[in-house]
């Protein structure tokens, strides 16, 4: 039973100095310090349970997200959790429609990242109070309640609530079997850990052969900074993994539209399944042009990790601008908005392959994609979830990967809670790790 009035919301800036090792580096983000705005929500209920929520950032700028979370707090404090989840659509709309704050969005940018962190904490708390992992809370929810969490505003021209209900009703056929299958075998994953742009060829080789030994069959390589360099690195990785295994490429928005087509025509010999974020994430028609041009080469377009909201996803789907849709658990307005995108993707028959990595993105998004398989898509064809082997040790309930698959979490909640000592050490700027690093910079 859902219970408690929200008595406290706190937020802090947690950063990991990943830039020191080149981890996470790509053609556009050369020195990311993987970070999170970390929200903790407490209630006056006697159970003492807390909700934890994050949104992912790259270091600088986290303090701006923290400010936005504080600005949103007034909508959450003193609310009864029952009232929030009893009308989650209404609450989502209240949060995203604040008459003054929406001017710095609406439903995009910093204020939307902050919305995600707050709502992620509420979903974590709800699932914990129900004693279920989030994916199971969603799987067990009756379709009407599930749909009452979604704001259908701006998407009813492609998906009405009635159509969404039909999709969920259809998804109930065989769902018990699919749940058992997930519990036994997990959800298929691919790895991005081997081929960050800042890694040397030796590191790449070393990581790739270890990944092969660990049973990985799907790999992603970062491209886009230098063509000759890309050709060398893609050849190296394709030679190592062999012709049968799956290779994806990710340009992280580096190119103009014609450049993307030209560059990928040169990399086509390495048989990538997709090119991810070939150009600006806002360029819907540009993605459509690239998709059309690369289709004869057998290369699809994937995008979504910096897609603002459900409206942009709607248009990407309408324009045939992507062949793989990449939801992100911390960019969109939490579970609420991601549910609407999963349902739209299902309507258009486009496979969802979530974006993950960063801080905690794997921990969160696994819940959404496992739910998607059990209750919405019922298919694993051309579907896999990104995996990056970083920073899991800072989470209380880290992901479990077996045979290159995500095993469904069993602990109650949204797997968002970080270890207290990790937060203490990595708080910016006063945690022990940062105090040392910042003092070093001054010298
Ligand atoms: Mg990417």
From TrEMBL:
Key word Transcription regulation present: no
SMART domains reported for this sequence: MR_MLE
Any Pfam family: MR_MLE_C
GO molecular function terms noted in the UniProt entry: L-fuconate dehydratase activity; magnesium ion binding
Signal sequence segment: none
Domain Mandelate racemase/muconate lactonizing enzyme C-terminal: 201-297
GO terms (BP aspect): amino acid catabolic process; carbohydrate catabolic process
E.C. no: 4.2.1.68
Family annotation (InterPro entries): Enolase-like_C_sf, Enolase-like_N, Enolase_C-like, L-fuconate_dehydratase, Mandel_Rmase/mucon_lact_enz_CS, Mandelate_racemase_C, Mandelate_racemase_N_dom, RHMD-like
Family matches, as PANTHER family: ENOLASE SUPERFAMILY, MANDELATE RACEMASE, MITOCHONDRIAL ENOLASE SUPERFAMILY MEMBER 1
Protein name (record): Mitochondrial enolase superfamily member 1
Origin species: Trichechus manatus latirostris (Florida manatee)
């Amino acid at each position: 039973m859902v219970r408690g009035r929200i008595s406290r919301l706190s937020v802090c800036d947690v950063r990991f100095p990943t830039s020191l090792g080149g981890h996470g580096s790509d053609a556009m983000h050369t020195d990311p310090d993987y970070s999170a705005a970390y929200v903790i929500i407490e209630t006056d209920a006697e159970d003492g349970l807390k909700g934890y929520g994050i949104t992912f950032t790259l270091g600088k700028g986290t303090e701006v997200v923290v400010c936005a979370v504080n600005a949103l707090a007034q909508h959450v404090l003193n609310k009864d959790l029952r009232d929030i989840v009893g009308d989650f659509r209404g609450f989502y709309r209240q949060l995203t429609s604040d008459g003054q704050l929406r001017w710095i969005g609406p439903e995009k940018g910093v204020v939307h990242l902050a919305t995600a962190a707050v709502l992620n904490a509420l979903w974590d708390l709800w699932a914990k109070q129900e004693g279920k992992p989030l994916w199971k809370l969603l799987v067990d929810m009756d379709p009407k309640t599930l749909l009452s969490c979604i704001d259908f505003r701006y998407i009813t021209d492609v998906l009405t609530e009635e159509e969404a209900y039909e999709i969920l009703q259809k998804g109930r056929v065989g769902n018990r079997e699919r749940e058992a299958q997930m519990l036994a075998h997990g959800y298929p994953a691919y790895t991005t850990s081997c081929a960050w742009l800042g890694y040397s060829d030796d590191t790449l080789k070393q990581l790739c052969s270890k990944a092969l030994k660990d049973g990985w069959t799907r790999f992603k390589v970062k491209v886009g900074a230098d063509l000759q360099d890309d050709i060398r690195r893609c050849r190296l990785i394709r030679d190592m993994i062999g012709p049968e295994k799956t290779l994806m490429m990710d340009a992280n928005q580096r190119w103009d539209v014609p450049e993307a087509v030209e560059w990928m025509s040169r990399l086509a010999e390495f048989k990538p399944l997709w090119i991810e974020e070939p150009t600006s994430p806002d360029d819907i028609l540009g993605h459509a042009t690239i998709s059309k041009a690369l289709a004869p080469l057998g290369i699809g377009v994937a995008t979504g990790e910096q897609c603002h909201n459900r409206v942009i996803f709607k248009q990407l789907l309408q324009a045939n601008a992507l062949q793989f849709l990449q939801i992100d658990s911390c960019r969109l307005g939490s579970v609420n908005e991601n549910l609407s995108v999963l349902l739209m993707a299902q309507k258009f028959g486009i496979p969802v392959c979530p974006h993950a990595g960063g801080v905690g993105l794997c921990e969160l998004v696994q819940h959404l994609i496992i739910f998607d398989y059990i209750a919405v898509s019922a298919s694993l064809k051309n579907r896999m979830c990104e995996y990056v082997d970083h920073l899991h040790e800072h989470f209380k309930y880290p992901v479990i990967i077996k045979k290159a698959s995500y095993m469904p979490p069993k602990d109650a909640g949204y797997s968002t809670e970080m270890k207290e000592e990790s937060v203490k050490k990595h708080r910016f700027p006063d945690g022990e790790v940062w105090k040392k690093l910042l003092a070093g910079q001054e010298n």
